[in-house]
Hints:
This protein is mostly helical. It has three helices and no strands. It is globular, with a radius of gyration of 13 Å. It starts with a helix and ends in a 5-residue tail after the last helix.
Amino acid sequence: MELPEVFDAAHQLVVDLVRSGAVTGLRIDHPDGLYCRRNIWKRLQRRCAKVLGIRLPKDDRAVYMIAEKNSERRGKAAF
């Protein structure tokens, strides 16, 4: 997943589904074994935001605070 071409290939369907509006949220279970989960989630979040035309804060801490607040309201873990 750390190699850009592997990340792109593995997430192409997910990004296409988000772009088309077929899905409005993602649930990722069992990310065990990923070298750096936080970076993977950050890249996926930014990729999905880009295809939706959503601007995320440049400060990653702000992005995670937004995700954590949203997940707390739903009672689920953000990342």
